[in-house]
Amino acid sequence: MLTHSLGRPTLCYIDHDALRWNFRQIRTAVGPEVKILSMVKANGYGHGAPAVARTLAAEGSDAFGVATIEEGIELRRHGIAAPILVLAGVYLEQLDLFFEHGLTPVVHDVDGLQRLDAEVSRRAATLPAHLKIDTGMGRIGFPSAEIDSWLPRLQKLRAINLEGVFSHFSQAESVEGEYTHKQLKIFQSVVRRLRSEGIAPSLVHLANSAATITLPAAYFSMVRPGLILYGVYPAPAMKKQICLRPVLSWKTRILQLKKVPAKTSISYGQTFITKRESLIATLPIGYADGYPRLLSNCGEALVGGKRAPVAGRVCMDLTMIDVTDIRGIQQGDAVVLLGHQRDEMISADEMAARANTISYEILTSIGARVPRIHHNF
C-alpha cells in the first residue's frame, strides 16, 4: 500500500485485487489468443496510471493505451516496459521523445504520415505506428470512404512500420445497434483491402469495453478495454454477461456538525432552506476536488450506512449534507461519496446520472489534490 501524509481526510482508495479480478474476467472473455491493450489514459481513468499499469502489466497486459506523449513517458519512468500506444498521435518536434522512450504513435492522416515517414527516414531509422481508420466516428482518422486516394501512398512508406490498424466505435455504451454493425463491416472491408495490397499489420483492433463484453466479431487480434478494467459497466444490461468489481471508492469525514432551526439558508444562493430543525454536516470536499457542482441539492452521500442528501450548492472546497434523519452521527464520522458503506452503495453510474453526465467524467474529474491510496498493491 502506498503511504500518504496525514491531512484533509478526503481520499480515493484503489483496490488492486478488484483491478486484477476485472482483468482476469476480460482475459477469460476474449481467450488466450487475443491481445489486451489496457487503456490507462487520463491518469488511469482517475485511478492513478503508474500504479494501475504496474498491476496490469504483472497480470499480463500486452500493451497500454494513453492519450498523450506525457502520459506515455510517465509510464516508462515508472518501469512499464510493454508497448505503449499514444492515441493523440505525434508532432514532429516530439519525435526524439518517441524514440527515447520507445513509444508508438497513432497516425491519423496521410499528409502527417508522409511528413513523419520523411523525418524518420532522414534519421536512417524506423518507427512502428498504428493506422487510425475513421469508419463513422467522424473525429480523426483516415476516411474509410477515401481509401482509393490514400492507400497508394501507404505503399510508398520507407521508414514507418505499420504494425497496427484500428478504428473507434461511435457507441461506447452499447454495440448492438445498426450503426455499430455498419462500422464493423466497413472496418472489415478496409482490413481486407489493405491485406490484398500487401499491407498486413499484425495488430488489428476495434473492440472497446462494450464490444469486449458483447461483440466477439470485433476482437480481431487485440481488444482495447478501458472502463471495464475499473469495474464500471458501459450499460447496466452487461452485468448479466460479465462480473466486475469497482476499483475506486471515494471517502471523506464530517468536518463539522451544526444544528440549525427551520428556515435556515444553507450554502450559496439560498437554494436550500431548511423546513424543520435540521442537522447539517459539512464535508471537506468540493467541486475543486472533482465533486460535481451539478450534484447541488440532488446528490447523496453515505453516512452511518444511510443516504444523506446534499443540502444546497456544492462549494469549491466544501459540501453540506442533511443528516437530520440519521441517528448517532458525530463529527469525524466516515462519509462515502462513491462506493459501499454497510448495505448501501453509490456507484459511478448513479453519481453520473444525478449530475447529468457519464461515469467516465466522474472518474477522470477527481482532482489531483485527492490522494489515491492503493490497497493490495
What does this structure look like?
The chain has about 375 residues and is an alpha/beta fold. The protein has 11 helices and 21 strands. The chain has helices spanning about 15-30, 40-45, 50-60, 70-75, 95-100, 110-120, 145-155, 180-195, 210-215, 350-355, 360-365, and strands spanning about 10-15, 35-40, 65, 85, 105, 125-135, 140-145, 160-165, 205, 220-225, 250-255, 255-260, 265, 270-275, 280-285, 300-305, 305-310, 320, 335-340, 345, 370-375. Strands 2, 3, 4, 5, 6, 7, 8, 9 and 10 form a 9-stranded parallel β-sheet that branches. Strands 1, 11, 16, 17, 19, 20 and 21 form a 7-stranded mixed β-sheet that branches. A hairpin with a 2-residue loop joins strand 19 and strand 20 (about 345). The longest helix has 19 residues, at about 180-195. The termini are close together.
Summed up, what is this model?
This protein has 377 residues and is α/β, with parallel strands linked by helices. It is built from 11 helices and 21 strands.
Question: Residue share in helices?
Answer: 25-40%
* Model regions low in confidence, pLDDT < 50 over at least 5 residues: none
Overall number of structural domains: 2
CATH class of the largest domain: Alpha Beta
Largest sheet: number of strands, sense, barrel closure:
9 strands, parallel
DSSP E strands, number: 21
